[in-house]
Write the structure tokens for this entry.
Amino acid sequence: MGDCMRIIKEEVLIANIKKIRETNDLILVVKDNAYGFGICYMVNLAKQLHLSKFAVKSVSEGIFVRSLYKEAMILVLGKIKKEDIENIKTFHLFPTINDYDDYLLIKKHKIPSHLAIDTGMNRFGMKNGYLAVINDRLVEAVYTHLYDDNIKPKIQFIEEISRKYSKPFHIGGSMAYGKTKGTLRAGRILYENTLYFYGQIVNIKDLEPKETVGYDGKYQATTKTKIGVCNVGYADGLALYYHGQVRIGKNFYSCVGKCCMDQCFILIDHQVHLWDEVEFFGKEISEDDFIKQNQMSKYEMFLRINRQNTGLYP
């Protein structure tokens, strides 16, 4: 089967997108190489599903999306610079007004834009002064981003702003799904449960009592023990001390010791053989269980695993 790998479960990804589109218009967030899933892959999938609205982090990402999809609406979420203006015009990108200086720059060059309003995250967007900007015809939409559990007043606020000033709105943050009929900028929620991550047993060791495993000898056998060496390590997305469960065949086994860059260690029995497949999550083990054991967020998991593994598309 080859090296450790992740497989994108495309049917789940498509189902996630279709479910959101039943109730909401959708702007597909493809920043940071589409959370590691690949901008090329996600933009081409969007074409198949007749999705044409995208959000990116930077002008360079926007230019790349434009090269893949000429008719797309492409919103640049991050700050822009004077040097970006020519490319924004040439490639028909929508910049974000994040502060008054952005507005002056965009006004000077007569560029249609979206206005970001900061509802408390203190990352990007205007916290005040946006009323001096919002009536400008260059402002084609307003948006905000949800960042905590107190979402209802933030959604009501942006919806009221939209109605009062007759501007379309969109909301970022997966937690907004099901809470508004407005347009969603969706990232993480699209990608949930769409990966199958696995490796292989590449060696088997028999340990005597008191023998140790891995760097620093963090695991010590108390009885005669079988250890399966799996070709997945911290370079592939595991925490240094990943002690979660994996599935081999029909059985579940525990990881022990300290991970190496390219390997981890699994307590096994006689039912496990060389080159057996090792599931970390995706078929019988959920993403949530893996994340809990690996002590990371879903965002981290997507980026770390996708960054290292080229993967296969079904």
